[in-house]
């Protein structure tokens, strides 16, 4: 059976592109990592893919605001191509800086602001998939996901989170501890189609049990892997 074709979009300062490449390969995809300027020069790298990821890190050193420069690459540089990709029913996920990029590109609602505590935060968190989520990425996930965060601008803001909830666009919430002051404990949101997902935590950094800091001491476990998000995305893309 042929494998899904995936593209991971990176840029100067991204640092999770190879991590997410590994996660997608484990989930059953063939993966090409492409810099944004390469994508602008050769847009068929996106056009030929069935699934796309905007990788995490600190693109362009967060100049002019986290994700702003890479978002310009993907909108001004690529025009409507990423939107057309989504309109064809192809799944897209933006992780951490990628989430910031997708909100700035207006592919996802809301915005990300500085953490409420005013400092960079790096720790492990627990996520729950929202029961009403429309996201193809969180479909069928009923056990909590354990994965790390690493951000200074991860506080999700939206003027009407109740409307997001009613529309099924709240995909993931922090359990127990909200690390950045996000409204309604929101860790991830989707677009109105359910194809696009953005989240601040890094599920690509918990794809095997021994990555969990408490592995062997009762923490983590196969039921709590972030890998399940990527398996869902690949499974959906395989139907296209």
TrEMBL record:
Leading EC class: ligase
This enzyme's EC code(s): 6.3.5.3
GO MF, one annotated term: hydrolase activity
Alphabetical UniProt keywords: ATP-binding, Cytoplasm, Glutamine amidotransferase, Hydrolase, Ligase, Nucleotide-binding, Purine biosynthesis
Recorded superkingdom: Bacteria
GO annotation terms (biological process): 'de novo' IMP biosynthetic process
Keyword match Ligase: yes
InterPro entries xref list: Class_I_gatase-like (IPR029062), PRibForGlyAmidine_synth_PurQ (IPR010075)
Database matches in NCBIfam families: FGAM_synth_I
This protein's name: Phosphoribosylformylglycinamidine synthase I
Organism name: Ilumatobacter coccineus (strain NBRC 103263 / KCTC 29153 / YM16-304)
Taxonomic classification: Bacteria, Bacillati, Actinomycetota, Acidimicrobiia, Acidimicrobiales
């Amino acid at each position: 059976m042929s494998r899904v074709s995936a593209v991971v979009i990176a840029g100067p300062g991204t640092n999770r592109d190879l991590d997410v490449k590994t996660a997608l390969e484990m989930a059953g995809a063939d993966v090409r990592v492409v810099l944004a300027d390469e994508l602008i020069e050769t847009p068929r790298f996106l056009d030929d893919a069935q699934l796309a990821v905007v990788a995490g890190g600190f693109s362009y050193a967060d100049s002019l605001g986290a994700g702003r420069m890479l978002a310009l690459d993907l909108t001004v540089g690529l025009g409507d191509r990423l939107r057309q990709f989504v309109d064809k029913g192809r799944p897209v996920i933006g992780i951490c800086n990628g989430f910031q990029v997708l909100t700035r590109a207006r592919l996802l609602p809301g915005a990300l602001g500085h953490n409420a505590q005013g400092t960079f935060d790096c720790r492990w968190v627990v996520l729950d998939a929202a029961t009403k989520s429309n996201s193809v990425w969180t479909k069928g996930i009923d056990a909590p996901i354990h994965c790390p965060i690493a951000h200074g601008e991860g506080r999700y803001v939206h003027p009407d989170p109740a409307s997001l909830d009613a529309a099924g666009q709240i995909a993931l919430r922090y359990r127990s501890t909200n690390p950045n002051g996000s409204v309604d404990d929101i860790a991830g949101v989707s677009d109105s189609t359910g194809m696009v997902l953005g989240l601040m935590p890094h599920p690509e950094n918990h794809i095997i049990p021994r990555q969990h800091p408490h592995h062997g001491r009762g923490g983590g476990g196969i039921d709590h892997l972030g890998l399940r998000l990527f398996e869902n995305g690949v499974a959906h893309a395989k139907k296209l």
